Amino acid sequence: MSRWLDVLKNMRFKQKLILSYLVVSLIPLALLGAYSYNQSKLFLQKQAIQGLQNTVGTLARGMNDKTEQVERTVDSVVMNTGLQRIFATNYASLTTLSEDLRNYVSPYFSMIKNLNTDILQLTVYTSGKMPEYGEFILSLDRIKEGSPWYKDIAEQRKTGWYLESSELAVFRPFPTILYNQMSGILYLKLNKDRFFDSLTTTTMTTAQSAHDGLFISDPNNHIVYSNNIEAAEIQRQMLQAPLKNKDMVEIDGLRYILIQEPLRQANWTLHYYIPEQDISMDATSIVKATIALILTCMVILVALISVFSHTMIKRIYHLNKWMKQVQFGNLQMDIRSDSRDEIGELTNRFGIMLRRINELVTEVYQNKLIQKEAEFKALQAQINPHFLYNTLSVINWKSLKIGATDISHVVTMLSRFYRTALNRGESMTSLKDELQNTQSFVEIQLVMHDYSFNVSYQIDEDVYQYDTVNLSIQPLVENAIVHGIDQKEEGGGKLTIKAIAKQDTIDIHVTDNGPGIDKQRLGEILIKQSQGYGLKNVNERIKLVFGKEYGIEVISEIGQGTTMIMTIPKYRNTKSQ
């Protein structure tokens, strides 16, 4: 205990003052606020749930009325003795049957459809000798195999509800007809959107949330209707998750309030859910009381601060005045303080920071000078390529003058090679220039090799409109000549260069008929810096610019030659356009 008293005794005055303010004001306010918030949250949440239950109950009653209306429509058909008589009679005369169908069945069914706009189809499936009549009377054989709901007929003798594609189907077996024991099934297909339009247009005014939802499930936990298709997965999880209490369920760590109301006629359940945190709570009275208490405490705190902090504020004003001068550009002040409290330390640290800023300004100025000098040197370095081109032009002119056309040809190819290779310092170039650069290199190599090998070009003209990494094809050709053709011991060398335009990519094939590459070196040629090959750098540059799915593939067998395939996308460099 004495140790803590010593710590408190040695604390600075400002720390003691802040600590006393926290103890006197913040702790009671925090306790009172927490208690008030929890009590108001429980009360208002209960009130909000009650409101949601009333709203969902109203919706459920509306849906029950709709299902009961459908039930009454079904009863009016299957319990109609006139219809039972017609379906049970074995007509000897087709004329009599036609009159009954035309004068009774057709008008009666048409009237039902006109009175119930939700009904899209009304059909009686019969198993007797009754002929089919439009869509009103069809043979039972049509649904025995292909209709899933037909299997439920044997299990229940009451009205069944079935979700069929985007429509709702309602079916009910006719009572056994005593005349000849013939059975029949009434089938109604309902417009799903119109049947559930009251739910689609309903807004839950009790709570507004971007994560709430309304859906209906059947006894097999299949979702019959949902006003938010995108939340179907969450709704399915709610059907499986156990309730933590009467109205609460937790999905993926988020607590939802779940209100459920049964729809008796269809044996469905109406569900409404909303995140617990999204329920709007009107805590006006609690907020007003808390604000009044905070204002009272603030008045007391301001009075205490005004008494104890006058001496501190005076020095803060001086520090603020110095900061304003620095803000307006006066960085040449020497700011120091002899005080050892927090304000004195802050003043001295601001003075140190100001001196450091002056040092950084001087350093940045010197770096600018160094940068300008480097730019000047880079500008001077650009003269060298021009000097090289001019020199090669003079050599070419002299060669033509003395009739040395072979020297002129080599000099011209060399000049064109370096112009495209340097590419004005750009890392990207057109495929047309890159292929011309490669052709110039091959021409020079042909002269150097005394035309001892043949060259074949197979270029799709479509590739000329695209761009690639500068100096990417020439290294492949150089490898093919140095490590392929030059190593061939017998027969003439052959070099083939292809550029193939595919749907989204371009393949560059460089093939030689050299001795090939052994499997060990072939496996390392693109992942290690193999001496004399240099393919690793080209492969890495392509992947860096275009992505990991592009690059170089090497295919080779001993004695069968080597093919290097460079794959790049159809890319246009906007900077070069």
From TrEMBL:
Q: What is its EC number?
A: 2.7.13.3
List the SMART domains: HATPase_c
HAMP domain: from which residue to which, for each copy? 310-362
> Which segments constitute the Histidine kinase domain?
473-572
InterPro entries the record matches = Bact_2-comp_sensor_kinase, HAMP_dom, HATPase_C_sf, HATPase_dom, His_kinase_dom, Sig_transdc_His_kin-like_C, Sig_transdc_His_kin_internal
Which Gene3D superfamilies is this protein grouped with?
6.10.340.10, Histidine kinase-like ATPase, C-terminal domain
Compartment(s) of residence:
Cell membrane
| Alphabetical list of Pfam families matching this protein | HATPase_c, His_kinase
Membrane topology, record value: Multi-pass membrane protein
Q: Has UniProt tagged this entry with the keyword Magnesium?
A: no
Instruction: Specify the enzyme's EC class, one word.
Output: transferase
Q: Spell out where the chain crosses the membrane.
A: 291-313
Q: SUPFAM superfamilies recorded for this chain? A: ATPase domain of HSP90 chaperone/DNA topoisomerase II/histidine kinase, HAMP domain-like
Keywords, A to Z? Answer: ATP-binding, Cell membrane, Kinase, Membrane, Nucleotide-binding, Phosphoprotein, Transferase, Transmembrane, Transmembrane helix, Two-component regulatory system
Q: Which reaction does it catalyse?
A: ATP + protein L-histidine = ADP + protein N-phospho-L-histidine
Q: What is this protein called?
A: histidine kinase
Q: Which organism is it from?
A: Paenibacillus anseongense
